[in-house]
Task: structure prediction
Amino acid sequence: MRKSQIVETPRGPVEIPTGLLIGGEWVDAENRKQFEVFNPSTGLAFVSIADASPKDAVRALDAADGAQESWGKTSSRHRSTILRRIADGLREHASSLSWIISAELGKPVREAEGEVEGSAQIFDFLADQVTQQRGTYSTPPNGGFRVITTHEPIGPSYLVTPWNFPLLMSARKVGAALAAGCSVILKPAAQTPTTSQLFGHIMMKAGVPEGVVNVIPTSSASEQSSELMADPRLRKVSFTGSTQVGSHLLKLAAPNVIATSMELGGNGPFIVLEGADIKKAAEDAVIAKYRNAGQVCVAANRIIVEKSIEEEFTAKFVAAVNELKVGPAHDPSVDIGPLASESQVCDVRELVEQAVAEGAELISEVTVSETSGYFYPPQVLAGASREFRIASEEIFGPVAVVYSAENAEDAIQFANATEYGLVGYIYSEDVGMALKCAEELKTGIVAINRPVVAEPSAPFGGIKASGLGKEGGEDGIREFQNEKYIALAL
Ligand code: NAP
Ligand code: MG
Result:
């Protein structure tokens, strides 16, 4: 690997490619610029990565466009073999990948290990799934000719990912695009490019042909996307991040009618109904809210509890939160690491301070003893009204707000009172009631008595301001394909 830097981790040195991956080579940015990546546990920079300019982005599109035709014509068996090798490569590099995720994001290393295994499972699933794709052959209702349908790769795809799951978000997009037969340009978040660099290296070692995967981190995302999306050779943009940036990319996609998939923000309700297993609901609420320090699009943002059980649930929930240990991400005993950046800490603090000034009450007791790094304690608020800013905005931090509801109907009404529609959680031992609520929730995903929804074989995606399209399942591959209809006269 040319152009690399050694990063020391508690489990030994890891070699990180520091160039841009374009056309199968690790190359310098044309203007030789680099940018630093910081460790949120310490606030210190630990690696410098090439900073792609818009000209570099065009070079990456040249490479992707050049590789598209031959990659698109490979057999699904061939692509399946490469996807399987990527899964193997991720597992071989699990230790270094999880330490790097932990170092650049502040995710506790145990959780980072889960992210690596989850990413490998995505490639396992795609390797199985891609050989099963079928077209159709049918006679239309009025007869006369035949309808044949088949699927073709959509073409060079631009994949833009957020910092909160540096590997998993890239794995979902790159994996599905490769399975579909598309070449890609991956742009990781500027805060967490290091994981994608290592991921790029693993994919090249797995036998991905030159130009099929290009990785171009940048500190100027806006200039990069404007340049690429104005180029008619680009046929797809798949984005995960904020609704604001997603909406901007949709506008950029319009002139050239570029296909889009959008995984955007959320404001997830976590509904606990009378008759729920309260102990389990309280424990699961901790997972659904505080995983990755709450920086998760499917995080339980609003904990909505039926009045009759509110006191008991809240006592159990707060007791569990008070047990959470905050500390540097590399300490394996830590439950909550730092937030990803200083600005993230400021945003969360401001939201909480405003809620408290408006009359909410802080009812948890965890404090932070770290003097450096971007730490913020897990907190629980009660007594907030449904009109407070904290009720309508995505918190994206380790803060839960408990609201009370008169009954299930009232809980659903509040759950749906948001522009977002990604996920809703329902806790009830009455399966009929839980299913009725699941039908009423205006979200793309519902979890019943379960705090985690990510699953490679399931269609993940939101509605309303939470997005367009699906990742995962068979639909995830289809997002990168055109369905072609052939009318055959007989
Ligand atoms: P963000 O600011 O929207 O950034 C996401 C990505 O978009 C980053 O790579 C960012 O690059 C890039 N970006 C920013 N402006 C751009 C532009 N004009 N053109 C092209 N790319 C641009 O979001 P974030 O703050 O990283 O992540 C938090 C948000 O993501 C939350 O709202 C969360 O809910 C959402 N999210 C959703 C899902 C889901 O599956 N639905 C999953 C995870 C996160 P830079 O790093 O350079 O800014
Ligand atoms: Mg941002």
About this structure: Residues 242 surround magnesium ion (ligand 2) (CB under 6 Å). The longest strand covers residues 145-153.
